[in-house]
Amino acid sequence: MPIKNQGFLNTFKNTNVVITGHTGFKGSWLASWLIELGANVTGIALDPPSNPSHFNEAHLGSLIKDIRIDIRDSDALERAILDAQPDYVFHLAAQSLVRKSYDNPIETWQTNVMGTLHVLEALRKLKKPVNAIIITSDKCYDNVEWVWGYKETDRLGGADPYSASKGAAELAIRSHIKSYFSNNISNIRIVSARAGNVIGGGDWADDRIIPDCVKAWSKNKVVELRNPNSTRPWQHVLEPLSGYLNLAVSLSKDNSLHGEAFNFGPPAQQNHSVKELVEKMSTYWDQVHWKDISQSADGPYESTLLKLNCDKALHYLNWHAVMGFSDTVRMTAEWYRDYYLKSTNTIDITRLQIKEYSEIAKGQGLLWAQ
Fold this sequence. Notes:
alpha/beta, two-stranded parallel sheet, globular
């Protein structure tokens, strides 16, 4: 059953929404939520990046218009967006893995920078009001590993190809807004959103800690931790998605947000190490076993400390993360537990967790959940 009492998120009912990257982890959860909100969803993406995948296991292809296009193909992307005539666009499609970016830097830059430009160019052709949320990454910041959170005005950049490409994408967004969408009477409103490491059920992508763990533990194997002391602002996938939805509705109602960038993440002090994450998972998963291989691991540079300052989202959107570390890990572990035990249909697990998350937000008095 559709979720009730979603406050101003009811704005999405019967609207046309385009999601790029809908077959990916975050994109499939966003599609699931928008379906529950009554939107007509068109997804544009490559095939799911893993097998299994949340998109396939939840049978989302039967619930939306599912279009398989590489966003580097500007002509095909433009046709798909124009055909959809969207009221809202959420651009999530990306090459999103740091280690893969070292192996395939050109593909990473083409996808993350040129792909974003192709979306922006398609938006220029639309003759109707559109609210576009362009999602980049917390890694768009020039990470000097200081202990306080990065603000939206901090310097962009990155040491690895992935991070640098995300910083460059932000510059491209800013340039296009000023060059082509700066007129106050423009039908197109655009903002960028930056969020970091998300966890949650249904992620089986390569080279991510939770997928690596559940794939190993489901076979009663030991997972190897390359960087057990690296810290991240772990948050459940529904946290930034609630921010994206909130931002889209707020943008449709307040033109002054056009051209702004927003961070979405947990409180800056809520960083936890990879080891702490795995230890907490063991509370909910009987077969948790791991081994520290940090002394022998040989790989490219990855940052070990990264935090976001989300005061801007709190001030302008009345948005903040609603789940602590324990609930974040609990919901993640419960999703996989139910999946592997086959105790609940995958789409039903997802719907129940969206409902639970919304109730938590409602209990904290957030406007969008009332």
